[in-house]
Write a structure and sequence with these properties.
By secondary structure, the protein is of the alpha+beta class. The protein contains eight helices and 16 strands. The strands form two sheets. Strands 7, 8, 9, 10, 11, 12, 13, 14 and 15 form a nine-stranded mixed sheet that branches. A seven-stranded antiparallel sheet has the order 2-1-6-5-3-4-16. Strand 3 and strand 4 form a beta hairpin. Bound molecules: 4'-deoxy-4'-aminopyridoxal-5'-phosphate. 4'-deoxy-4'-aminopyridoxal-5'-phosphate binds next to helix 6 and strand 13.
Amino acid sequence: MATCVYINGKIYTEREQATVSVFDHGFLYGDGVFEGIRVYEGNIFKCQEHIDRLYESAKTIYLDIQMEREEMISIMVDTVRKSGLRNAYIRLIVSRGVGDLGLDYRLCKKPTVVIIVDKITLYPPERYEKGLKVITTATRRNKPDSLNCQIKSCNYLNNILAKIEVIRAGADEGIMLNNSGYVTEATADNIFIIKNNILITPPSYFGILVGITRQTVLDIAPEQGLKVETAGLLVHDIYNSDECFLTGSAAELIPVVECDGRSIGKGCAGPVFKGLLQRFRELTKTVGVQV
Ligand code: PMP
């Protein structure tokens, strides 16, 4: 049971041997797309949704993956099987491939497909009760008309710059605003608030990655008696929310209890959050593709 890496047709079980060329445009220019996917008790959670998002990101950057979605899923299943891990994190990367130096996409004839299956480091369980302290970052989220955040691209510098601010400030996470000052998302997670039993999250066109965990929460919220809205949020709305939480494949749902020094709600995980997390965790073992 160990790390397993698929690279263009071969599977490696030694990390040191799982390497790609320095002439890969993914390395040279961040020219590629990726997905982060979870495996729960042998279930690849929301597998099809992740594959669809990958292919949509690739289409927008004019990258032909040269492989059908079904084949990609079957290779992913195989790689997870070979790892022997029942609970894992999958990092699926498709880069433009190896080519001479230069921005011309035609220099790369074949995309590089990498599937890393590994263990995952999670937030410790008490964080799901005690929550995170966040700050708003000075780094604004990429403008969608420059680099659309809906493309899950291999260039994460925008998010990394925000994360550097978070770390330097001693906070747990950062909320990124768009150029109009509206809340977009955290550095690698989407954001939700609850106000008067209404669940609110920013819409895609505000400049966010449209998270698969975010969509799952939007789907289960009505079952929990919540009204759902996608609407513009200002930091004022975060400070004065009843509850606030982040969502992402790695973090799942995690509460935010403080933002810029303002305590949110009761300062710990709220009841609506707890209900949503419980339902979410039930789904993780059933919705997806079984290995
Ligand atoms: N926003 C960003 C910028 C992300 O990188 C991610 C993924 N880590 C998310 C949101 C959450 O997306 P998902 O729920 O699909 O993991």
